[in-house]
Amino acid sequence: xxxxxxxxxxxxxxxxxxxxxxxxxxxxxxxxxxxxxxxxxxxxxxxxxxxxxxxxxxxxxxxxxxxxxxxxxxxxxxxxxxxxxxxxxxxxxxxxxxxxxxxxxxxxxxxxxxxxxxxxxxxxxxxxxxxxxxxxxxxxxxxxxxxxxxxxxxxxxxxxxxxxxxxxxxxxxxxxxxxxxxxxxxxxxxxxxxxxxxxxxxxxxxxxxxxxxxxxxxxxxxxxxxxxxxxxxxxxxxxxxxxxxxxxxxx
Amino acid sequence: xxxxxxxxxxxxxxxxxxxxxxxxxxxxxxxxxxxxxxxxxxxxxxxxxxxxxxxxxxxxxxxxxxxxxxxxxxxxxxxxxxxxxxxxxxxxxxxxxxxxxxxxxxxxxxxxxxxxxxxxxxxxxxxxxxxxxxxxxxxxxxxxxxxxxxxxxxxxxxxxxxxxxxxxxxxxxxxxxxxxxxxxxxxxxxxxxxxxxxxxxxxxxxxxxxxxxxxx
Lengths: 251, 216
Fold this sequence. Notes:
Chain A has six helices and nine strands, in the order H-H-H-H-H-E-H-E-E-E-E-E-E-E-E. By secondary structure, chain A is α+β, with helices and mostly antiparallel strands. Chain A has a nine-stranded antiparallel beta sheet. Chain A is globular. Chain B is mostly helical. Helices cover 62% and strands 0% of the residues of chain B. Chain B is built from ten helices and no strands. Chain B has helices at 14-18, 29-37, 41-63, 66-82, 94-112, 115-123, 137-151, 155-165, 171-178, 182-200. Chain B is globular and about 50 Å long. The chains are: A alpha+beta, B mainly alpha.
């Protein structure tokens, strides 16, 4: 009953506007707000307060070269988006409708070892290292970034593919992915125009859902249509078999 | 009435400030966004020149690290370029939209780092750059409004609001960090935000009227 819940909901609206509630309470308030204009108006005003909070801060001078660096990154981003057509309009994802069979997993484990030698799963580790690859990459002036967006099976997930202009270093960083059981892992894929797949590496996420993996492009970046991340068996697969969780954004 | 009401504040310059970001000197922020939609890089540079100091301030306050704050600054304006269509004028001014992007990006970055580093950063939340805004009279005016409004809050309410906003902490996390009952954190959040809501109402953006609503 809406009115019975109303008073309790109102107690939480300020924290709701500050994005400071747990997901269950947030969902409960979302549901209430769809039906209650009065509370929507209160939230709107609390959110206006939230938007004004940072104006109380002392202004901070950006670095002298910040404007030029921004325009350089913009140019790099535009060039990259021209070379990456992004997510195809229609992509066949046969694994959405079926789970991998045990025999296929065994075959995948064998093949993945072969692929590992050819494509180099050269490194993997959980996130939050004191000097992570991601941080090193971000510090480089020639780094380029492609955003990854969560799929329907992981709508709150996000991530980035970062790489240097000479492709000598690349890594994927993710957040908001669910932790997996020991027999499962996440795997990075690059898809080619001929619909074949190249693995970029496997990784796991920590309890906060964050993870990163250093990846290597088997061939020139322009040979790929996009970057994808799926759930796979622990040792990885030779081609995607599990649910898609992240993929490159639309240009 | 379910929420307490207080007398309207006498904050200075309300009418003038309310127009601050609506009638900016030409070109307006909205005009810059329209040019960005057409792929005008000079418009992005102009938007950066106008608001980079605000964005830097938020990023620096959240992250406490100039290098990371610079990264958030760049990401924010790049995102404004690529996602310019997501700006909704009814939700507030362009600068508020940019600051929202910056806050989300900085908090994502904060959450992605180790818990230990995060604790260290949160303990140094007030370690921001010294003010250097003498050449930005509009910012100074709005800043005065906010400082005055925040000064009306008891320190315990202000602390909790800042931990939620700049620290990205949930109410439960704040309760654990401060060693307070969750109910106390919730009531202080509510009381503090309610005071600010009343104090700052003259500066809220104009809004649409909801239709088809059910009474609760």
